């Protein structure tokens, strides 16, 4: 079915690149290893034993990821009391992740992905990304880049999964929409 305007001058809707039910990410293998900045590395299956996982995937070498840090942290704080682990996944080593995030690395569980093996397993093409993985290992919702309505849809799916209130997205302090940077560059 093709989109048709309802009134003269109406613009087509924003393209959907990844929403709840229109997921861009692929289900990762359960034996995929996640490496926290502190503590022992474990498989994804082990991290999902009792909790869902919300990954905020960022690249410490790009401006695009730095622009979204405060927005992502605000969303993570809203869901911190739920049965979902809200986490950073940084495409750098532990020192690079710590340097990029500063105090945010101590506030939230942070994983380092220097070889981008997790990014590859999720099939991500653009960063930053917001990916929700259910406790059963399936991707519930995902989006890439910063498209406020898509982040809002993913946050609403996460809120629905947790019987929780979703954060305000977009917020007046959020950046303007942008595509993001290549995930595998």
Describe the structure.
The protein has one domain (33-182): Glutaredoxin, CATH 3.40.30. The model is unreliable at 14-23 (pLDDT under 50). Strand 7 (129-133) and strand 8 form a beta hairpin. The radius of gyration is 16 Å and the shape is globular. The protein has helices spanning 44-47, 63-67, 69-79, 94-101, 104-107, 117-122, 148-162; strands spanning 33-36, 42-43, 52-58, 84-90, 109-112, 126-127, 129-133, 139-144, 181-182. It has a 7-stranded mixed β-sheet with strand order 2-1-5-4-3-7-8. With 185 residues, the protein is α+β, with helices and mostly antiparallel strands.
Give the spatial strand order of the biggest sheet.
Answer: 2-1-5-4-3-7-8
Largest sheet: 7 strands, mixed
Number of spatially distinct domains: 1
Quick one: CATH superfamily? Answer: Glutaredoxin
What is the CATH topology?
Answer: Glutaredoxin
| Architecture (CATH level 2) name | 3-Layer(aba) Sandwich
Helix/strand order: EEHEHHEHHEHEEEHE
Q: Would you tell me the overall average pLDDT? A: 90
Low-confidence segments, given as residue ranges, are 14-23
| Percent of residues in beta strands | 15-25%
The total strand number stands at 9
CATH C-level name: Alpha Beta
Termini, distance in Å? 35 Å
Shape: globular
**What's the number of helices?**
7
Helix content: 25-40%
Structural class comes to: alpha+beta
Radius of gyration: 16 Å
Keywords:
alpha+beta; globular; single chain; Glutaredoxin; 21% strand; 9 strands; 7-stranded mixed beta sheet; 185 residues; two-stranded antiparallel sheet
């Amino acid at each position: 079915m093709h989109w048709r305007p309802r009134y003269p001058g109406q613009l087509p809707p924003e393209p959907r690149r990844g929403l709840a039910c229109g997921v861009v990410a692929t289900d990762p293998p359960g034996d995929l290893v996640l490496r926290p900045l502190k503590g022992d590395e474990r498989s994804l299956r082990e991290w999902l034993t009792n909790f869902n996982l919300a990954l905020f995937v960022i690249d410490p070498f790009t401006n695009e990821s730095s622009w979204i840090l405060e927005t992502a942290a605000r969303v993570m704080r809203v869901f911190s009391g739920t049965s979902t682990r809200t986490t950073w996944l940084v495409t750098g080593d532990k020192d690079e992740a710590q340097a990029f995030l500063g105090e945010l690395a101590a506030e939230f569980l942070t994983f380092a992905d220097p070889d981008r093996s997790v990014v590859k397993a999720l099939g991500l093409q653009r960063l930053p990304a917001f990916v929700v993985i259910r406790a059963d290992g399936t991707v519930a919702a995902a989006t890439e880049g910063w498209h406020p309505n898509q982040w809002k849809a993913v946050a609403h799916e996460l809120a629905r999964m947790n019987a929780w209130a979703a954060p305000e997205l977009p917020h007046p302090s959020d950046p303007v929409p942008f595509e993001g940077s290549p995930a595998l560059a």
